Amino acid sequence: MFFFLSRKNSYQNKYLVRSKVSIETKTYPHAETVKIFIKNSEEFISLDNVAFDIWKLLEKKILFEDLIKRLADLYDVSKNKLIADVNKFIIELEKYHLIKISDC
Known about the structure:
The chain is of the alpha+beta class and 104 residues long. It has a single domain, classed as Arc Repressor Mutant, subunit A (Orthogonal Bundle). The protein is 36% helix and 26% strand. The protein contains three helices and six strands, in the order E-E-E-E-H-E-H-H-E. The strands form two sheets. Strands 5-1-6 form a three-stranded antiparallel beta sheet. Strands 2-3-4 form a three-stranded antiparallel beta sheet. It is globular and about 35 Å long. Mean pLDDT is 83; it is low at 1-9.
């Protein structure tokens, strides 16, 4: 996961979905990572298994709270830590314009 300063609970009651950005995804099974190449900026980000699970869940529009519930079913972690880590990752996705956030 990415670890950056986050805005506490800034995504509650918000819908999240991947942006329609030109990307290429490459999986490296031996390293258990996925790299997303952002074509228009020629940059890439690496995702670990948890970040990739979030990325997959963002394929369809999802309410932040539902995203947290789905991840809580997959991982044994406190809700506060989960919210904090997901917030940090979403900030990283926003930085690369890989996510859209809306009220409805």
